[in-house]
Amino acid sequence: MANSSGSRDVQATVLWAQRKNYIFLTVCVEDCKDPKVDITEDKFTFRGIGGTDKTPHHCEIEFYEKVDPSSVRRIISDRQLEFVINKLNTDGAFWPRLMKNQGRHWWCKVDFNKWRDEDDVSLDGDVNQDFDFSKYAETMHDDKVNAEFGKFSDSDDEELPELGTDDATSIESHINLTLYMIRSLFIDLMMLNKLLNEARLSVCRMSRYVGQPSPVSHPQLIGVGCVTPGILKTEYAERRAKFWSSVWKHAQANNTNMNSCVVLIPAASVRFCAPDVPHVFRQESNFFYLCGFQEPDSLLLLYGKSEEAHRSVLFVQERSPHKELWEGTLAGCDGAKWLTDVDWATVHGDFTKFFEEYLLADGQARSTMMYSVVSDLSAANPCYKKALEIAKNLAIYGESALELIHRLRWIKSSAEVELMRKACSIGSEALAETMRYTRHCRNENVLVAKMDLELRLRGAKQLAYPPVVAGGPRANIIHYLDANQIIEENDLILMDVGCEVGGYVSDITRTWPVSGVFSKPQSILYDLLYDCQCKLIDGIAQRRLVTLREAYLEMMSLLRTELQNAGLLSDKLTAQQAFNAVDQICPHHVGHYLGLDVHDTHTVPKYIPFQTGVVITVEPGLYFPSDCVDVPEEFRGIGMRIEDDVLVTSAGVEVLTDRCAKSKKKNKKPLCSYCKKSIENNEAAFAFDRICHRDHIICSSCKMHLNGGEMCELQDGKILCLNCDKKLKCEACELPLDLRTVYAMGKRWHQECFTCSVCGEPFLNWQYLIYNQKPYCVRHYPYRAASPKY
């Protein structure tokens, strides 16, 4: 039973195995200093500081049955702490599990190096002879070797034979001695191999780039102990444990004769848009959710024989200097193991042999359930294809575990929620900035680039999907991606965009007038749509709407009522006719789930009640194509949608995208910058970041109406056409002005002509004082004669 006594402590990983009369416990904490271990008849408690980060570790285990604390053997090494504890009940019965509590404990795993089944042990006779620990302690003193005593100690080691006088006995003794020495040499070689692997991992921890950001290579992105931004190794391990538990229960319910299970989770493959031109790679979301590994064509395999005991292995690409020259650094086996903390990692070439041997071992082929988590992105994975061939030859037909993993992904952890908050915050701020930018630019393609730039400047990795930037009637194309038109002055802009942060995405839509003012038909529809969305979010917050299906039906009902009140839908229609009519006006759903994918966990039904930690979108829309004859002409060609990302909480909801403006107060008529009177839509114009009436954009010299043509602005706010601007002359030398123009004292000067009236020197930092309409520097200003003016 785990007891998290300190929020800063790290749960230590524990491996266990057993014999009939004793159990093995291995606490996996490296370089543990001053460990505190307390063993009673019922409980094992450990605390210590260790690991590469020197963090506090702890674990607490309540044993399934009582143990004998007086007979405990322990070996403490640089890599781990090992204990052999005698069972108090000496009837020789195997425990069904280690802990009294039957729940799942992701940090407690079976030690397969020491594990022996009860049937296997019964064939070996006296199980107490498996380990002679007192003799072992006398013959081996090196900590590194002692740390490995359990890996080979369950062999039938024998006492060194004494040489007798009988020749036959002497020969037999020499043979036994030779075998004993060979076995000892083999053990020493295995120890050396493990030490070399540890050394390689140590080097990897300290220096090598492993093909994706890590705490070593990218400390600004990845925190200590994390695999990906914001997600710890322990959380990935817990996800794998929960997923394995759900798969095992599903397998047992469908096959009572099953005694083994294997799950294949392939990674995405690289896709090409042209020969030798790959698309930007994005990892398959289910694979990413379970291990966070970013390398293409990898495969995660989970296998085991019980709900509590499973192992995870990553099959990765073999490192190649030629491949890395062209495509970048690969993680390799050591890098993948260190980064993801799976049980072990190996190369693709080992997959076929491993998979075949596992399925054929002890006749398991007939009693092994095979599951897979596959999408369109990962169906071409080479290891997965080989697995299908092997399974087909053995007459094993797998089942999909997609629904099982989607149920886990559906509810977000606190770390996932923080990443989604960040993605939504960045997306909202970038979209708000792009909305302001439309005063200067009405090119759809440039607005796409502007949005991409603003997202990346704020820390997003990339766009979550190709954005929709649609002006005017093109907003009626729900997934309009061309973005190659110029937006007209009186059009609306619909922008549907999102970004990706740490693998998690946002999805936001706003609609606004490019002129800054809604026309009357546009205002009617926007008010209608805004009220509808607000009521939907309130209904979800108040728990009146508890599923996406209920929210959709409520949206259709609200739109029907509002459209009938606005005179855009007949009130004489039957309920079904009205529903069909509204479905033509808003042909999409009210929203979808959101997470690692934009349309996340699509196998989770829309009639499932929301739970705390679920993130959805709420996006009602109205679309009236230009050829729509069912509405008055002034409404034709208008399309709009408002979309927000909403987190379901225990207290209601949290709108994650509320930083991007959408409220109706934005629909109020703006005031003219010159006359301070309200502006109608057809009267609005922009001049140098100021909105004003069209009649005010005139040349202050020739009085010509400019109407958005090329113009320049004087520092006193006056506007000149280009022809009048070119006629201006320097106040001092009366020669035509050029690019070296200075505007000061309400007049224009060449830079070299605007100097102090006394010393003739240019002004330091353009600071000058005026007296009697003449400029003075600070030193020669007549302070006694007048007060200064800047």
From TrEMBL:
Keywords: Aminopeptidase, Hydrolase, LIM domain, Manganese, Metal-binding, Protease, Zinc. Residues 728-787 form the LIM zinc-binding domain. Residues 9-99 form the CS domain. Its cofactor is Mn(2+). GO terms for molecular function: manganese ion binding; metalloaminopeptidase activity. One of its GO terms (biological process) is proteolysis. GO terms for cellular component: mitochondrion. InterPro entries: Aminopep_P_N (IPR007865), Creatin/AminoP/Spt16_N (IPR029149), Creatinase/aminopeptidase-like (IPR036005), CS_dom (IPR007052), HSP20-like_chaperone (IPR008978), Pept_M24 (IPR000994), X-Pro_dipept-like (IPR052433), Znf_LIM (IPR001781). SMART domains: AMP_N, LIM. Gene3D superfamilies: 2.60.40.790, Creatinase/methionine aminopeptidase superfamily, Creatinase/prolidase N-terminal domain, Cysteine Rich Protein. Belongs to the p23/wos2 family. Belongs to the peptidase M24B family. This is Putative Xaa-Pro aminopeptidase 3.
